[in-house]
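Q: Please design a sequence for this.
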């Protein structure tokens, strides 16, 4: 454990030692990874979208048994039971609530009244402005380099837009994996960085070793809409190429099957899944076939991340995968990032200008 720290608005807001966030990756960000990040001084975020309410309660309890450090939980703002999950976080005094989509204003107010730090994720300046006006404590902004659902704007263009537009701490995501990136983000005005792929590829990650080795052996990612109808950055594999070539009918058949499988795993009823589909569709230009395809995301990710079958699933990945070649423990990773960032910032501060 290193002694040096980088004090930023993010560390002061959340109570963590280092301005490094591990994102809430479905099937990946479980109690083991989250607690390892928290114990290393970063902000670990528990992924709850693939958990039932009861499973989330158990996961929070397990994290608590592994660490006394602050951590967060990622919630789907459009989930039909989002209110119940918010109540669960409040009862368990979880430090941070992060959201993959902009939460309703009343949910933000309820969490803030209970002392929970609210950090929505956004992919556009206007979305950052909206949640800031609604009272969000900070915002995580992901550029197009990031894995999973992503947008078309590069982090280097999106980050300064958001930093200039809002007066709350901004966390940069998309393309970060080392201390140089953290130093660059701080120079842009960010309060810290968030990383997904880099934390997935650690020894503390519960992803099967064979899948981690598959990540380390690949360098090409692709943004596809064939996973769930929305832009999704994944590793380019033969399965993904097959999905890209599949027709509408075969895609819908696969989606119906996966919807049934996800219903069984999640314990959701068909009416609840339909309500979630309506929430997804609201305000977005999504067809009903695209909404139905959303069931592909958790099941295709589970095949790789849990079942260890990358040949049968998809592997969400940021473009930084091409630069990663090891599997450090979270403590080693964060210590290295902070040390490197501190050295870079010190060198920049003392280097004379010619």
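A: Design:
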């Amino acid at each position: 454990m290193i002694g040096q720290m980088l004090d930023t608005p993010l560390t002061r807001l959340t109570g963590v030692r280092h301005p490094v966030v591990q994102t809430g990756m479905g099937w990946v960000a479980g109690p083991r990874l989250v607690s390892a990040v928290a114990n290393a001084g970063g902000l670990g975020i528990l992924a709850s979208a693939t958990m039932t309410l009861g499973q989330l309660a158990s996961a929070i309890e397990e994290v608590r048994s592994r660490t006394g450090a602050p951590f967060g939980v990622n919630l789907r703002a459009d989930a039909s039971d989002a209110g119940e999950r918010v109540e669960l976080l409040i009862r368990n005094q979880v430090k941070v609530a992060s959201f993959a989509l902009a939460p309703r204003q009343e949910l933000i107010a309820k969490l803030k009244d209970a002392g929970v730090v609210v950090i929505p994720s956004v992919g556009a300046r206007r979305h950052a402005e909206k949640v800031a006006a609604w009272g969000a404590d900070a915002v995580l902004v992901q550029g197009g380099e990031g894995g999973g659902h992503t947008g078309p704007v590069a982090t280097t263009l999106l980050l300064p837009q958001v930093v200039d537009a809002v007066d709350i701490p901004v966390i940069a995501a998309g393309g970060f994996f080392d201390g140089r990136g953290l130093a660059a983000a701080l120079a842009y005005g960010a309060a810290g960085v968030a990383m997904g792929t880099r934390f997935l590829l650690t020894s503390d990650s519960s992803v099967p070793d064979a899948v981690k080795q598959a990540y380390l052996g690949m360098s090409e990612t692709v943004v596809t809409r064939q996973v769930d109808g929305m832009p999704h950055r994944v590793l380019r594999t033969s399965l993904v190429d097959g999905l890209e070539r599949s027709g509408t009918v075969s895609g819908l058949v696969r989606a119906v099957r996966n919807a049934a499988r996800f219903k069984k795993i999640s314990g959701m009823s068909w009416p609840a899944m339909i309500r979630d589909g309506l929430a997804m569709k609201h305000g977005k230009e999504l067809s009903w076939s695209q909404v139905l395809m959303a069931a592909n995301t958790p099941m295709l990710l589970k095949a790789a991340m849990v079942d260890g079958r990358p040949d049968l699933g998809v592997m969400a990945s940021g473009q930084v995968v091409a630069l990663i070649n090891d599997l450090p423990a979270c403590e080693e990773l964060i210590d290295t990032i902070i040390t490197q960032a501190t050295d870079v910032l010190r060198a920049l501060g003392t280097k004379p200008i010619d």
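Q: Thanks. Anything notable?
A: DSSP finds 16 helices and eleven strands in the chain. The CA atoms of residues 28 and 207 lie 6 Å apart.
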